[in-house]
Here is the input.
Amino acid sequence: MNAEISTPADASAPAAELAQRLSATPRGARLARRLTAQQLATWGYPHDGDPNDTAQHLVAELAANAVTHGRVPGRDFELRLRLLPEDTLRIEVSDARGDRGPRQVTEPDGEGGRGLILVTLLADTWGVTERGVGKTVWAELALGRPAGPCPV
Ligand SMILES: Nc1ncnc2c1ncn2[C@@H]1O[C@H](COP(=O)(O)OP(=O)(O)O)[C@@H](O)[C@H]1O
Ligand SMILES: [Mg+2]
Here is the structure.
């Protein structure tokens, strides 16, 4: 039996996953958002629905940060989407920059700092974990029951 497609023995294991390396460019960030829309539709959350829309916003903010603040020249970033039990989406955006991470922007009239406020408002929870090279900024979102598989 192929281990890749075997049913997970552990009930807490993710039901499904997408992992994609992308160039650390605005184009890569746009692609991350588009892949998210497609993957959510495949999991039963149509393009025009709120869960898909919210997931796209979260990925767009995290990917934009990865390609601006987390970018190391010549290094890709990675998008990982996991469908966890109880219809929770886990988004992971990993970049190569380990010496800097998300921070609160305090300048009251500043242009920046809205991305992570949006992430805080939209996600149920989010955080940062270190990795061998760089870091992962993750967010989790309760999607509700899927409508069933739909065309992408
Ligand atoms: N992936 C990241 N790598 C390094 N620094 C980050 C990352 N994401 C966010 N930051 C830091 O956190 C700050 C706040 O992020 P955000 O709220 O998205 O504001 P903005 O992107 O507009 O500056 C950024 O200005 C940056 O300093
Ligand atoms: Mg930002």
